[in-house]
Amino acid sequence: MGLPRWNLSDNTERKIRIIILIVVALILIYEKFCGMSSTQYPAMYLSVFSLIATFMTNAVQRRYFTYVMEYAQAFRIVAILMTGAFFVIWLLTTYERLNESAMPSHLIYNM
Q: What transmembrane ranges does the database entry give (predicted)?
């Protein structure tokens, strides 16, 4: 039976890769200048898995993983799922960090 195959054209896969990598680069730039450790870790994991997910294209699988395409496809699916999961985690941690209430001033001066 096998795993599902995405028979996208090379042009479509290239556009998807460019968009994903630009989004990841913008997230990493944002984290470099405005991030905290609670949001930087999901961003780093997001970048690692997005590289795997975007460069395991159908052409790469056919060329380098001819005899184990089922396993390469499973690896790609897991990388895509992990990319999505870490993107959601990054969104949640960033949302929580931006919506934290500031420490009351009477607590700051009494320390």
A: 15-31, 43-61, 73-93
